[in-house]
Amino acid sequence: MNRAERRRGTKLERAQGIDLEGIRNNDPQALQAALNVIDANVRQQRLTKARKICDTALEVNPQSSQLNYALGVVHQAKGDVNKAVHSYQQAVSTNPDNLAAWINLGICARSMKSNDTAVKAFNKALAIDPGSFHAHYNLALVHCDLKQMDEALSSLSAALEINPASPDARFQLGFLEELRTNHTVAVDHYRELLKSHPNAEAAHTHAGACLQMIGKFEEGADHLKRAIELNPANGRAHFLLASSDQAMKDSGYLAQLVEHTRRRDIQKSDRINMHFAAGRMNERFGDYDTAFDQYKTGNDLRNAGYDFDRHHLISMGARLKSVFTPEYISKLQGLGDPTTRPVFVVGIPRSGTTLVEQIIASHPDAYGAGELANFNQICGKPDTQSDTDTPDILENLTAEEVAAMVQRYLADYPEASSSAARVVDKTPGNAMWLGVFSAMFPNAAIIHCDRDPMDTLWSCYTQNFHTDVFYACDFENLATYHAVHNQTMEHWREVLPAKIHEVSYEELVLDPATHIPRIIAAVGLPWDERCLDFHSYDRSVQTTSLWQVRKPMFGSSVGKWKRFEPKIEPLKTALDAASVVA
User: Fold this and answer.
1) Interaxial angle between packed helices 201-213 and 235-242, expressed in degrees from 0 to 180 and rounded to the nearest 10
2) Cα–Cα–Cα angle for 199, 546, 480, nearest 5°?
3) Which of the residues in the chain have pLDDT under 70?
4) How many CB atoms lie within 10 A of CB 58?
5) DSSP alpha helices (H): ranges in 163-234?
6) Spatial separation of the C-alpha atoms in residues 380 and 463, rounded to whole Å
7) Domains in the chain, ordered, with CATH?
8) Which of 75, 324, 469, 509 could be 83's S-S partner, Cβ–Cβ 3.0 to 4.6 Å?
9) CA end-to-end span of the chain
10) Which of 81, 32, 31, 39 is nearest to 61 (CA)?
11) Side-chain half-sphere of 251: how many Cα atoms within 13 Å?
12) At a CB cut-off of 8 Å and minimum separation 6, what does 348 contact?
């Protein structure tokens, strides 16, 4: 240490009351006093001062695990996660038993999506202290990120056993059950949390959403209204409530909602939800021009965060047709699993896929699994916004590769479906990949749902999809997707050996007694009268159609787009242009 550094250190010692000489000699009291000063500055958000103290102390004792840990806390508080990770790694390298450093290292690694590092860090912490609540809890979060539901459940259960009163662990357990589609169980956890924390806004919001999914709309609305009382800027609660029959239908509420959309002190996601909610409410009041304006503003905000390439979509459609020739399809036959259990219900979103799933699921020998693993996961690829390289992966498939894809797909079947003779996957986007699904499951039933394009695409535009349907926010993107979808389906009809059963939404809702038995026959099940009473079937529904499928068949959605003429004339124009380009 040179003279200037010594003077700086002496000045710092006087200003902060720390003992550098004691720190140099690893005096426990001197170290603890310095750590107390650092902690006090962090708590008061004096992070620059805390950093200076850490740096000075580490100059005289760079091997101190405690000081490196403290510096990691400072970096983490400043949002510099990379530097925090380095400091925590330094801390555990000099003291492998530094429990707090391992836990914080895992938290930082998870925030960087370095899940393997995070899991290792939390397991190191548990090896030091098997009773660490924070290690169990944060490990559960990583397992949730990785969709390792059983492991997440085990870690959360251990955390709650250590600290049964933890609201965070109780909430996360409810959220985990949501992810596992056990919405009734999830509600039980949220209710338990609300007993001790009645003003837990997030618990009210999630309980309301889950109750809607299991058809308990009145109780769900009560929770959503309470969430809005606790936080008027809760956009998700506004949207869920406005989309239900229990919406607050007074003009005063609508005026307050619109006023909230003008605020700039709320998160973008909340503002988007509020614009869609205001669109719903204005539509209920018959003010279609204002409803359109609200939907458009919400979609424009969503679209600003996306980078959807419609030209790539056109190229991908052409690429699929060039890969899945009749010769290649013939070559793939015999490589897959001969089971008849899978049923694929495909179509553009809002074309009736959820309705058809509900009809089939009401049969005692069938199970509605909702939307299962996306195609990238089935191919063994990480999730991406586009499937640019997927056709290349699917060229020259071997029996081993098809078997691996079958295994990955079937692993996503819910445990509750184990006794079902048919399991319905209604992922609409699977329409693009029917060639490979046919190779994986040559005996699977395929049902394609079709609906008037203006009704379909306008309905997509008015949905604030909770999953990222990237093309739904823009008329030209929607029209391009529709054209590519139609051309791809026409190709599958020509080349696939299996017959695709076509369902017209309009024909189905106008004459269900004729078309429902045909759907059941198409999936190879014996007729059961209960399928005509599909709306009474008690199951969890997670899609945006969760209200409609709880009601008897109705035709009020047919031609609904006409209420918004001429505002959506550009969608008509885009449809005509896209059918030529695609």
Assistant:
1) 30
2) 115
3) 1-17, 381-389, 468, 537-556, 580-582
4) 18
5) 167-179, 183-196, 201-213, 217-230
6) 30
7) 310-581 (3.40.50.300)
8) 75
9) 71
10) 31
11) 3
12) 428, 431, 451, 456, 457, 460, 481, 482, 485
Q: Tell me the two tokens of residue 538.
A: 């008690």
Give the pLDDT score at 554.
Answer: 61
- The strand pairing partners of 445, in sequence order, are 343
φ, ψ at 228 (rounded to 5°)? -70, -35
The C-alpha atoms of residue 328 and residue 495 are separated, in whole angstroms, by 10
Contact (Cβ atoms closer than 8 angstroms) between residue 37 and residue 53? yes
Q: Residue 283: how many CB atoms within 10 A of its CB?
A: 20
Residue 266: count other Cβ atoms within 10 Å of its Cβ: 17
Q: How far apart are CA 240 and CA 273, in angstroms?
A: 9
Cα 413 from Cα 410, distance rounded (Å): 5
Which helix (DSSP H) or strand (DSSP E) does residue 296 occupy?
helix 288-303
pLDDT in tens, 59-84: 999 999 999 999 999 999 999 999 99
Report whether 407 contacts 396 (CB < 8 A): no
Long-range contacts of 516-523 (CB under 8 A, 24+ apart): 516/359, 519/356, 519/359, 519/360, 519/447, 520/359, 520/360, 520/363, 522/445, 522/447, 523/343, 523/360, 523/366, 523/422, 523/445, 523/447
pLDDT tens sequence across 320-330: 999 999 999 99
Cα three-residue angle 64-65-67, rounded to 5 degrees: 65
At 271, give phi and psi (nearest 5°).
Answer: -65, -40
pLDDT at 388: 45
Q: How many CB atoms lie within 10 A of CB 135?
A: 27
Residue 384 has what pLDDT? 46
Contact (Cβ atoms closer than 8 angstroms) between residue 506 and residue 558: yes
CB 194 within 8 A of CB 177: no
Q: Is the Cβ–Cβ distance between 238 and 222 less than 8 Å? A: no
Within 8 A by CB and 6+ apart from 7, the residues are none
